[in-house]
Structure formats: C-alpha cells, structure tokens
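Q: Structure for this?
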Amino acid sequence: MALPIRAMSRLSWRNLWRNYRRTLIMLLAIAIGVWAMIFMTALLRGMVDDMIKQGIGALPGHVQIHAAAYRDDPSVSHGMPAPAVALLAVLESRQVEAWTSRVKVPAMISSEYENRGILLLGVDPDGEMALGFDTTDVIEGRFLHDSNDRGIVIGRKLMQRLETRLGKRVVVMSQDPDNAIADRGFRVVGVFRAELESREESIVYAGRDVVQTMLGIGTEVSEIAVLGHDYNTPEALTSSIRSAVASDREVLSWLELDPYLATMMKVMDGFVLVWMVVIFLALSFGLVNTLMMAVFERVREIGLMRALGMRPSAIVYQILVESLLLLALGLLVGNLLAIGTIILLKDGIDISGVSQGMEMMGASSMLYPVLQWPDLVLANTVVVVLGLLTSLLPAWRAAQYRPVEALGRT
Amino acid sequence: MSAISCTDLCKYYQQGDAVIKGLDHVSLEIDQGSFICLSGPSGSGKTTLLNAIGGLDSLDSGEISIDGERIDLMGKAALADLRLHHIGFVFQAYNLIPVLSAQENVEFVMQVQGVGTAERKKRSFKILQEVGLEGMENRRPAQLSGGQQQRVAVARAIVSQPKLVLADEPTANLDSRSMEKLMTHFRELNRTHKVTFLIATHDVRVMEWADRRISMEDGRVIRDELQQAV
C-alpha cells in the first residue's frame, strides 16, 4: 500500500528540506542546466534562423529558375526569355508571395583609381523589395527608381575599395552573347550596407532594362526568383513551378541551391536534442549523488515505513516523488531564468568582435535568441524523463533494505 | 486472527567465527486476546522473536502461522499488508518520522490504510489525548521528550486498532505514572477489543500486568507460565 498522493507529496517536500543546503545546491545546478539548455538552444536557433534568412535573402527567394547550364556557367550566354503564360499563372497564384526576374552576370567595375570583379544585377527595384531588399540598407543616396534607372547602387565596402563616392561615375564592363565587350558608364546614385561585408564588396544593382540593353540580350533574364510563404516547406512551390516550365529550365528550391544551409536546418533538431541530453548527463551525477545521500541518511526511517506496512514499491514511489519535486522546482527556476534572459536580450547580442568568423558561416554579427515552444517542451521533457530514470537507482536501493536491518542502523 | 503458532523457530547470526543463536528451536502457541510478556536478559532472543512474528525478519528454519496463514512463506508485499492491517509495532527506539508532527506520525498508518481524513483526525486526536499528549499534536519529534516520543509511538501502534501489538520495551523511558497509564490503556484494549499483546520487557512492573509470562535465555524459552495479572 502507498500513502495518498497529497500525504506523499507533503512527506517528500519536507524530506527535501531536511538538508536545505544540499537541496539548494542541487536546485541551483538543475536551474542552471535548464537555463543553459533553453537559452543556448534559443541562441543556436536564432543563429541558424539568421543564417537561413541571410542565405535566402542573398539568393534571393525560396525557389529560383535558371537555364539548365546557367549555374555551371553564369554568363550572358545562358539566359532565358521572360516567363511564359503557364509559368506566369503559377507566379501570380496564391502559392507565391512575390517574384522577380533579374539579369545576373559577372562583370568588372572600375573607378578612376581601382577596379574590382563583381556580380552585376539588373533588377526591377519593386521586385527586389518584394523579395526582401530593405531600402533602409541604402545608407547614402537612394535605391533605383525603376528598371530603366540609369544609376547604379554599390556596397559601402566596394565604394571604399574603389575609392569613389556618391555622385561619381564608374564603368561596368562585361561580355555580350557574341563575346564582345559590353560596357557602360553609370553614376553612383546609392550606397548600401549589408550584414555580410562580402555582399557589399561583390554585388551592384542597376536597372534591369538598362543592363539588358547594355548586354544586347533583349528581354532575356538570367534568373527568376520566387518567394513562397514558408521557407521550411518549399517543396510544393518548387513542384508547381517545375510543372509549368520547359524541360531545359532548372528549377531549384533554396534547399538545393544552398545545401550547406539545408544541412544546418536538418541537423539542428538532432543537435538540440544531443545538446540537451549532454547537459542533463552532466547534471545527473549530482542528482544521483543527492538522492543516494538522502536515502542513506534515512535508512532507519525507510525501515520504519516498511515495518509499518509500506510496500517496497511505495518506497520507490516516495523517492521518485521527492526527485520529481526537486526537478520541478529546478525546472521552474531554470525556465524563468531562460525566458527572462531571452526577453532581456531580445534586441540581440552584438558579436561584431568575431564578425569575420560569423560571416564565414553566413551569419550576421547580431545574435538574436529565438525561443521555439517545441524546444521548451523538449528541454523540460528531457529533464523530467531522464531525471526520473536517474532517480530509479537510489529509489530501488531504498526499497531493498530489509526492515530489521534498516531499523537497527544508527 | 484467532491464534499465533510458532513451530521450531531457528534464527542464527554469524559473528566472526562464532554462531549466535537468536532463536533456538522455539515453539509457542498464542491465543487471540492474550496479554503476554516476554522477559529475559539482553540477547535472550526477545526482539528476534518479536521481529519474526511481525514478519520483519526471516527465519533459518521453522514455521509461523497467524490465523492459520503461514507468514514464513509470504512475499514482501503480503508481509507489508499483514503488518499494515493486523499488526501494531512499538519499537525499542521510538522510530518516529522526524519531518512529521506527532499527529501526522500517528495518522501515518491510517493514511497508508486509506482511512478518510475526518475519521483519521478524530482517532489520532483522541488517542493522543488518551496517552496524555493533548496540545502537542503539532510538535515534531525533535520538540518532544523521550517519554513523549514513546507515547506517540504507542499511539501510532494502537490507533489503527490492530489485532496484534508487538511492543519492544514500550515503557523504557516512561515514569511510573505514565507506565501505569499506558499499561491500563493496553489492558483496556486487550479486554474490550481482544487485541493480543506480546510485550518484550525487562521491567518487572510491566510483567505484573501480563496474564502469561514467557522467559527466554540464549534464544530458548526456558519458562512459560500463566500468572494472575494486576
């Protein structure tokens, strides 16, 4: 027979505080462990989320369409015509939040002092903004007005490298489909900043129609970028677009365009679980020790309870309730600490001191913790389940004591 | 339960090279409603016999039946149930749960039995009154004297109205008045509810209260006689 749950809980609660120092130390350990589980996971999630968004923003879009040979040779020779009726029907459907077409070719940019290899983007500015280009990133001047705009918008870092400035002229040179030089002068009308310095150095924006004219490609484009509603599930959108284009087009989701990012996303869930289990394993030694000591100190009392008629299973149950109370208290404090830390750091952690390292991974220099409720549930579940499993050994030990021997202990 | 029957009980302890005879071929028959004292010097086997009858200790050989059921063949769970519902224990060292109050200690067995809250509180309060601990219900064992703790232990043993009470030196820390009060209460239970008492004691005053006196020495029963109780 066992005590009713209320009496059991009262007995267990009071037993916890018999050695309050030991209990407080263990509570603190559990709370810090839980805090680490949740907070570090939130930081990791935030970092990966940022990397994915940066990556998708850099592509841009959840799905892209190219001519089949374009990705192997991203030159002007591998363009494609503007979208046909079938494709337009998909692009204008509810599956698609926004889309745009671009000319995207390697080129050379020269100022009066320097020159650099770049990626020339001929864009429709409205389309770019719909796909995520933030005009507040233009820190000097303005973004392009429309696809006929004759200005050019360059990155801050590129401006420094070229030793030029807003209002000055630069020359952009590339090749046309006949392999002849195609070049044009542009006035710098805007300077943009990016989270990744590499983007500031390598990408320039010009009007799409202007670039098409410069390259002599008519209305051909290099790329059509499509934004869906959820980056986690681009498969359906990819499939719809594939069925609407010719067979010599390559339609790829961001998962295929950036396999590194895709892998990051896939391993994240597994990594989070491993991380939590590792933290808990470190905690578990302390928990087992605490409970073993608690049982050892109460051998006589356990013998008494057996003598009075409590079954061995009830003794196990009582020790597990004690462990559960300890875990619950630790979880409460740990969860509050973690959530509080995440709220306090909602404006991000500036890690610009290691920004170059972060840039190599595709992450920005501001880390924003992202708390996802499945991670919260997982952390709490790991602690409770593994905590109770860990407590089985001391509980089982307690139930094995023979009443007469236990009663005889001093 | 109608009777306790002990047949050829043997229990040995190893102490280095020596073998100590805790019980050496002990046989007894005890009727329901008996009031028996076990006497003998320390190490005579009184506690060992009480523990064996209460199912707290195993035997090397022999049989014990309570109400016709062989308790020496019972498993741990069955023995726990037997102790819970039919046997009250008073230990030599009071053995109270230190984090529970006096009343909570008395209620402990009834809680495990599943007695309702109101009934439990009524009985525990009454029994604490009867053993002279009125007003001390909320005190924890550390706040009670040795004698008071012993009375709480006695109250715990009898509050659930067991059929058999096994008491090991129940009056060891009690003054004469308290001892008399306690023994009177025991006899009252014995006469009105036919509770069987088996009391191990050195105290001659306690022995005078018994109907039957069993003397033990070196694990053997050396004398078993009826007597006129006071």
